[in-house]
Design brief:
Length: about 325
């Protein structure tokens, strides 16, 4: 199954993405398809990834249970300085040049669970998670903990194929300082049914590229995600990514673009609301805090020297979150 195409609905342009079967024994074909996808648009589907449809449905059901709670319950688990917990409507502003308000979505961050008292919990993005009370949402934490762990395993499989596509050893990203001790963040998302209007600066999620290595995205059946394959085009051309049941949509982040010296590029994407409620589940996969990201040896030469200086990942990510999220002090008013 090399690509997936859905016919145009009305005047909405849909893109065609490569589809990579993670259960395929033909690793050469998988590497070839992924490389083509990364050079083409930085987005692709993965199927047969090992997470059952039954469990995916349960994660979506539990997500809806949380977002259906009254606001006064959700605010009890408001996002903290470690980026754990609930993010209200408009909390995130991804494209300040065109957005009149923040994103018309609410979310919930769940990161790597590190208990208080552990020295690692002092680092940004590490620490204990914030959880709804079990009497309010029984079984919720257990479902999300399990999904966090299973999604990381999927991400590691994808990262091995990416490594081979960049002419690296398959286990390059498995090192302790990269995905051995990652900053891996699960984010539940709910778009309430707002109709977006780009001419008025109203978006479900403003145009942006993701910060890190890769993102896995599971969506419901509601159309909304758009990508722009050429961010420098005037005017920009936006195409819908059709939902594919049971698949993850995978996209490359800015850090992989930097690591690969722009061989692989991150891609602008956004969400337009069409008046229907929409749920999605994003899983952001980042290297460890102490990982120094510098040009990969296979991506530089005398004719193509490194385009970016080395950067320590934890510092870079903290700044990116600070740039795109509301100051927490506004919620104390």
């Amino acid at each position: 199954m090399e690509n997936y195409e859905q016919s145009k609905i009305g005047s909405k342009a849909h893109t065609v993405l490569h589809c990579i079967d993670l259960s395929s024994p033909d690793i050469h074909q998988s590497v070839s398809l992924l490389k083509q996808a990364c050079l083409d648009c930085g987005f692709f589907y993965v199927i047969n990834h090992g997470i059952s449809q039954e469990f995916m449905d349960e994660v979506f059901t539990q997500s809806k249970r949380f977002f259906n709670l009254p606001l006064n319950e959700k605010i009890k688990v408001l996002r903290n300085e470690k980026h754990r917990g609930y993010t209200p409507l408009h909390d995130e502003l991804l494209d300040p040049d065109t957005q009149v308000h923040g994103d018309y979505k609410e979310g919930y961050y769940i990161g790597v669970e590190v208990p208080e008292g552990d020295p690692e919990s002092e680092k940004p993005f590490y620490g204990p998670n914030v959880w709804p009370a079990p009497d309010i949402l029984p079984g919720w934490r257990e479902t999300m903990d399990r999904f966090h762990q299973e999604a990381l395993e999927v991400a590691k499989v994808v990262a091995r194929i990416i490594a081979l596509a960049l002419d690296l050893n398959a286990d390059f990203f498995d090192k302790p300082e990269i995905l051995g001790e990652p900053i891996a963040t699960l984010r539940l998302l709910h778009y309430e049914g707002q109709t977006s209007d780009p001419s008025k600066g109203i978006y479900g999620a403003g145009a942006h590229s993701d910060f890190g290595l890769i993102t896995l995205l599971a969506t419901d059946e509601v159309l909304g995600l758009q990508i722009c394959k050429d961010k420098d085009a005037k005017p920009q051309i936006w195409e819908y990514v059709p939902p594919l049941k049971g698949a993850f949509i995978v996209n490359l982040g800015d850090m992989l673009e930097r690591w690969s010296n722009c061989v692989f590029k991150s891609t602008l994407h956004r969400v337009l609301g069409n008046g229907r409620e929409r749920y999605s589940i994003a899983y952001f996969v980042e290297p460890s805090h102490d990982c120094v990201v510098e040009c990969l040896p296979t991506c530089k030469s005398e004719k193509n020297p490194p385009k970016f200086p080395p950067v320590k990942y934890g510092s870079y990510l903290s700044q990116r979150y600070k740039d795109t999220h509301a100051d927490l002090s506004i919620y104390k008013k």
